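Researcher: Quick test of sequence recovery. Tokens follow.
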């Protein structure tokens, strides 16, 4: 991958011009420039130099009034299933990247490319050409935490004529060689598990696990290549606190073993005489398969590891706390072995459920179904690790990764339903906010006789889906709609005034297509005065899935508009090919 294609080359450009630019930017090349009409080719001495040329020159350097486009030179026959994705935010978590890539097809491998750039680069192989083509179309230029992703084909030496897809399902199939590192997380020898390990620890040991100024927890995360969240503020006053560990299965087990060792030492130092069992939290959906028919799976784990295992009763479950507590008693070595076996069973169940869910991955475009908790993993209110949305009040000893882009939706409910949504002493709305990973507030009534109240929901798409789904469901449960009546609500989202026309479309074409596709009523009221942020309202009415699909489609339009606006506003370098301003970290 050392050969470069240089596109958008002016007809006036010569080999000497290109040579001068490479010399100015101190980019080596190992052969002459082959200049054609409108494009050119050149060889670099190694892949790292080629990557630097792409990063420094592509879309940034102008020659004779045209901004050069630089990418890997890939013969048509080798433009198959392999892509390179550049300019990935350096702190992005693998599970978030995995979830994004899986939206477009079955990913067979995803490996990090070592470069000198501050942003991350990965090479991805999809199962089919069509999936790779779709990913390229959707991801190239898309914004990820203020970074514009750059996607290009890379040579696929194994490319063969397209045949019927072997796997068929979307999502991640068997992976290729493991990635050598992770943005912000250092080297990682194996692929991170999509499902975290969740454990409960006695509150009195939390301080020892964190250590002075967080030194102990940082040391654990570094040694085990893991991300650990200690939810200290969750369940104030409770005797136990949950800890969430994200890593490879081996990394999770090593971190868990280290935490057990720390608790044992602290117990000796503080003369704590009670037994400290290992308590693993697992979603109820997986527990039946962990126990097995007539308890056989659980009995085998107990016999193989020399432990005694009990599971909390079903009666302890609630909508907002779907986890069961698996209590393991025995020596630290025995508990550690049992943890490996228990989590192996849970991960197998999760992967089975994910395979089923990925068949439905086209249900609502633009929504990461993995993050909804429909097929659960991780903490209540957190959804799977892909969600990357810690619940309010969750604080960890070590945490990496940015938040998905937040959205604000105003959902209108019957005024009489406000009490049901808030709950006794505000408990329901707090639980709902925690469950969804969103901020949820009820706006003051507009007058004494107001028949509707506005619920303000702030959070990323997956949090919006979960919060709105529960509000629609709660209204049905509390009989605010008849037994045979479908719950239909009105939602408002604000869009930049300059983008309203794109939502409407020429002669109302886009908004009509939206309504036909989603079965929701979509209205952009005319003659609106933009607010102080130069935004106008789009009204969406309908049942839950109609509203969701319409919201996602409108957000998709807004993303395209923002992308085009950013490209137009991007300052062009002067004709002398001056150095671009370096990105701020």
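Model:
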């Amino acid at each position: 991958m050392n050969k470069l294609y240089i596109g958008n080359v002016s007809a006036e450009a010569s080999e000497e011009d290109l040579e001068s630019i490479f010399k100015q930017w101190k980019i080596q090349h190992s052969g002459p420039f082959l200049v054609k009409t409108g494009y050119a080719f050149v060889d670099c001495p190694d892949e790292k130099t080629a990557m630097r040329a792409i990063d420094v020159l592509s879309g940034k350097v102008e020659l004779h009034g045209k901004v050069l486009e630089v990418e890997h030179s890939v013969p048509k026959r080798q433009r198959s299933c392999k892509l390179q994705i550049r300019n990935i935010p350096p702190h992005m978590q693998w599970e978030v990247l995995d979830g994004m890539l899986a939206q477009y097809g079955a990913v067979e491998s995803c490996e990090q490319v070592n470069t000198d750039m501050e942003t991350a680069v990965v090479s991805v192989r999809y199962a089919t050409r069509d999936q790779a083509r779709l990913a390229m179309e959707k991801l190239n230029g898309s914004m990820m935490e203020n970074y514009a992703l750059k996607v290009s084909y890379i040579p696929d030496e194994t490319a063969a004529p397209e045949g019927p897809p072997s796997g068929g399902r979307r999502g991640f199939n068997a992976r290729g060689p493991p990635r050598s590192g992770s943005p912000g997380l250092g080297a990682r020898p194996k692929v991170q598990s999509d499902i975290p390990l969740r454990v409960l620890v006695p509150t009195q040991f939390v301080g020892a696990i964190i250590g002075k100024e967080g030194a102990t927890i940082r040391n654990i995360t570094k040694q085990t290549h893991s991300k650990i969240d200690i939810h200290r503020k969750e369940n104030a006053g409770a005797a136990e606190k949950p800890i969430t560990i994200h890593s490879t299965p081996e990394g999770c087990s090593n971190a868990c073993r280290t935490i057990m060792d720390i608790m044992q030492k602290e117990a000796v130092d503080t003369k704590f005489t009670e037994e400290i069992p290992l308590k693993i939290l697992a979603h109820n959906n997986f527990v039946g398969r962990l126990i097995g028919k007539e308890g056989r799976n659980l009995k085998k784990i107990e016999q193989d590891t020399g432990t005694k295992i009990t599971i909390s009763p079903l009666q302890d479950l609630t909508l907002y706390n779907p986890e069961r507590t698996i209590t393991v008693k025995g020596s630290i070595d025995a508990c550690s072995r049992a943890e490996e076996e228990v989590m192996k069973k849970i991960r197998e169940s999760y992967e089975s459920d994910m395979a089923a869910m990925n068949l439905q991955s086209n249900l609502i475009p633009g929504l990461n179904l993995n993050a909804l908790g429909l097929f659960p993993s991780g903490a209540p209110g957190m959804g799977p690790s892909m969600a990357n949305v810690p619940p309010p009040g969750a604080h960890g000893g070590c945490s990496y990764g940015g938040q998905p882009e937040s959205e604000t939706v105003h959902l209108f409910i019957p005024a009489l339903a406000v009490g049901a949504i808030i709950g006794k002493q505000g408990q329901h709305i707090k639980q709902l906010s925690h469950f969804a990973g969103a901020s949820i507030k009820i706006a003051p009534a507009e007058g004494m006789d107001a028949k509707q109240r506005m619920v303000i929901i702030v959070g990323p798409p997956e949090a919006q889906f979960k919060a709105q789904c529960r509000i629609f469901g709660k209204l049905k449960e509390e009989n605010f709609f008849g037994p045979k009546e479908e719950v239909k609500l009105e939602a408002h989202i604000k869009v930049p005034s300059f983008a309203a026309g794109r939502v409407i479309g020429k002669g109302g074409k886009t908004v009509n297509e939206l309504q036909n596709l989603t079965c929701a009523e979509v209205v952009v009221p005319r003659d609106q005065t933009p607010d102080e942020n130069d935004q106008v309202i789009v009204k969406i009415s309908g049942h839950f899935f109609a509203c969701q699909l319409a919201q996602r489609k409108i957000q998709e339009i807004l993303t395209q508009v923002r992308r085009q606006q950013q490209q137009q506003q991007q300052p062009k370098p002067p004709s002398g090919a001056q150095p671009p301003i370096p990105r701020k970290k």
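Residues 332-358 form the longest helix (27 residues).
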